[in-house]
Design brief:
Blueprint (H helix, E strand, L loop, with lengths): L4 H40 L4 H41 L6 H21 L7 H9 L1 H33 L4 H11 L4 H13 L4 H11 L3 H16 L3 H25 L1 H24 L1 H9 L1 H25 L4
Length: 325
């Protein structure tokens, strides 16, 4: 009678994990429990001083292990905080749990589509991985679109605040004017900053929080100008007018650059999509011809080389057309 290999591996894994957890608990609680006893034995003369030092060395080792574990947990917490900031920046309508479920569902749909389309078996995990990235791509596009809208609306917000300051209003009142007059997303972000300073948070801190949510270079100029003006004084309205003027001039130059690099972007899209389109067309016309790429050693090397060259080409084209203004 032979055991099922899967069941055997599961039993061995369970026993190994249980033994590891038991050993760790025994070390931790054993060292902590015997520390006081070791010191009493040393004071009573039953143990030499070196015995206590050994116990303390063991305790230091456990403390180092705890510090490493806390560092791992802290790193995981930082990554989760970054995910939370990412969802906040994208103004995501779904929670993180729903996002994970959507990714898993898209992955299953991708594999199912590959099965229905009679794709080669080695492409099943590739299809599942690519479709699992669709929710992440959607959130990334939503986040980038929100950043662009915020950047385009920022000059008008600067002018509104400058006019409010010239009318005799305070900076907080200027923020409130932006909340009432401007559309989303700039109104939403300034509303959060306005509410934070109403709750007692210093306005510089509230604006820095907004800068963290919206990492925009022009907004950084505004936050820096406010922080300097609060410390040294000066005509903040004039500074905001100049910031708005610089932003508008930059948009003009950026529009010219995008018009000049439009041909390069279109060429990059065509060159990236053409190998994939040709592969799909040839596969449905002559599957045996394409399967040589997956069944022969030189075919696998050609696929790997093609993928690497595609990635390098995409990076090169992006470097050429991505001109910072």
């Amino acid at each position: 009678m032979s055991l099922d290999p899967v069941l055997l591996v599961s039993i061995v894994a369970f026993v190994g994990v249980t033994a590891l957890v038991t050993a760790v608990l025994a070390i931790v609680y054993g060292v902590n429990g015997t520390r006081a006893e070791d010191r009493l034995d040393v004071l009573a003369g039953n143990k030499p001083v070196e015995a206590e030092n050994k116990g303390l060395m063991k305790e230091d080792m456990v403390r180092i292990g705890r510090g490493a574990m806390q560092g791992m947990i802290g790193g995981f917490s930082d990554r989760m905080a970054k995910w939370g900031l990412f969802f906040e920046q994208a103004d995501s309508p779904v929670s993180f749990e729903t996002f994970l479920m959507l990714s898993a569902g898209c992955s299953f749909l991708g594999v199912g589509g590959a099965v229905i389309g009679n794709a080669p078996i080695p492409l099943y995990p590739v299809c599942g991985f690519l479709t699992a990235l669709l929710p992440l791509m959607w959130l990334t596009m939503r986040r980038n679109s929100r950043f662009k809208k915020f950047g385009k609306q920022l000059p008008d917000a600067m002018e509104l605040i400058a006019r409010a300051l010239r009318s005799g209003h305070s900076l907080s009142s200027g923020l409130h004017v932006v909340v009432e007059e401007m559309p989303d997303p700039v109104s939403h972000e300034f509303h959060l900053a306005f509410e934070q300073q109403n709750l007692g948070v210093p306005i510089e801190v509230a604006l820095k929080s907004m800068l963290k949510r919206m990492p925009n270079l022009d907004l950084k100029f505004f936050v820096t100008a406010v922080a300097i003006q609060r410390q040294t004084g000066g005509d903040l309205a004039e500074i905001l007018d100049k910031i708005g003027y610089v932003i508008r001039e930059r948009f003009k130059i950026l529009g010219t650059v995008q018009a000049l690099t439009g041909e390069g972007r279109l060429s990059g899209i065509v060159l990236m999509a053409m190998p994939i389109a040709i592969f799909i067309a040839v596969y449905y016309l002559n599957p045996d011809y394409v399967m040589l790429l997956f069944t022969t050693e030189i075919g696998k090397k050609m696929i790997a080389g093609g993928i690497v060259m595609q990635v390098l080409g995409a990076v090169a084209i992006k470097k050429i057309i991505d001109i910072k203004v």
